[in-house]
Specification:
Layout (H helix, E strand, L loop, with lengths): L6 E10 L2 E6 L12 E2 L1 E4 L6 H13 L7 E7 L3 E7 L16 E5 L1 H6 L1 E4 L4 E4 L2 H16 L1
Parallel strand pairs: 1-6
Antiparallel strand pairs: 1-2, 1-4, 2-3, 2-7, 5-6, 8-9
Amino acid sequence: MSDKSPVQVAIAILPHEGKFLMQLRDNIPTILYPGLWGLFGGHIEVGETPEIAVEREIIEEIGYQITNSHKFGCYNDDRVIRHVFYAPLTVSIDKLVLTEGWDLGLISPAQIEAGFAYSAIAGEERPLGVVHQQIMVDFMQWWGNS
């Protein structure tokens, strides 16, 4: 793979009681989307399928074993190929252990549409990453029509 090839990641939409679990990314300038809300997930390792990668990443990041996941779509740009899955979050968020990121939260459809959500840890409203917001808007539209 050349340096110009996009990286491949697997990310998860995790609906729970009409809201969606999202991660407030660490506020570190050297990472993609620092300090912005995004979806949980990460890089697909050599030899992994996107399906295996999304399960591994969710366990690593919040200690949650996703079940009954389905592929929603694929979002590509020059830097990243995002394999997007959805699976129900069947536990309350106080059962999750955040090991990567600044905060996590259940974000409402209205907050997703507005592009901002409050973080108690950050102590302020933080924006959603543009790509992640678009994925969520697309998903909510699809979900409402399915």
